[in-house]
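Give me the fold.
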Amino acid sequence: MTLSWGVAAAVLFGALLHASWNALVKSSTDKALDTALIHLLGSFIGLPLLLAAGLPPPAAWPFIAASLVVHIGYYVALTGAYRHGDLGLTYPLMRGLGPVLVAMASAAAVGERLSALAWLGVLAVSGGVLLLGLSRHALDQPRAVAFALVNAVVIGLYTVVDALGTRSAVQAGGNALQYVAALFTLDGWPFALLVLARRGPAAAWPYARRRAPIALVGAAASLGSYGIALWAMTRAPVAIVAALRETSVLFAVLLGTWLLKEAFTLRRAAGTVVILAGVAALRLG
C-alpha cells in the first residue's frame, strides 16, 4: 500500500478537525466535563451511523473492546494535560511521540516495513511536532508534561489497536465505517459516567446544557477526524497515516495563537517547516 494524494488530503482535513475539537476542550472552563460531553454526544452521532452501516464482523469486536479500555486512559490523561498546561505545549507533546511509537509497533503488529525516506518523514514530523511543543516553559509545567507524555504512549497504543481492528473488519467482509460507528457509539459512555459519578448531576447538567451546541460541533469533528484516519489506514501504511495525522499540531498552534492568544514564536515557525518537510518525505516515501 502507498499513500495517494487523495488519501493524504483526507488525512490532512481530518487533522484540522482533530485540532479543532482539542481547541474546544482547551478553551473550556471544565476540561473533564467538556471531554466527557463531546464524546458522549459522539455516541449519539455514532448510533444512527451504526444502524445505517450495520454491525462490524465478530472479528472486530475484541479490538473495539480493547480500544474502549485504552481510550479511558486517553481521556483521563488528555484532561489532565489541558488542566495544567497550554494547548501549544501539551498538544504537540501528546502527538509528537505517537508516530514513532506507531511506526515501531506496526512493524511487529502489522508487518509493515517503511522505506528509509518514509522513516525520515516520520522522524521529521515527530521532531517538528516536539519542536513546536518543547520550550523553557515546559519546565514550568511539569504536571502538564507528565500527562502529555503518558498520553503519547496511550495514543500510540490505541492507534495500533484500532488500525488492526479496522483492517480485521474489512478482511472479514465489513468496512471501516462499521468499526468507527460501533467504536464511537460505545466510546463516549465509560468516561462520561466516571465524570458524572465524580461531579454529580447537579453540577454536570447545567454546564452540559450550556455547552451542548459547541460540544456537538466538537463531537462531529472528533468522529470525522478519527473515522478518516482509520479509513486511511486500510489504504495506506499505518505509520505513515499516523504521522501525517499529527500535522494537526500545525492547526492547533494556529488555533491556539488565534483563539487562545498563545504566542507564535520563531521556534514554532521552525517546527512548522520541519513538519512540512516530513510530510513531503512521507508522500514521496
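Residues 107 and 113 are 6 Å apart (CA to CA).
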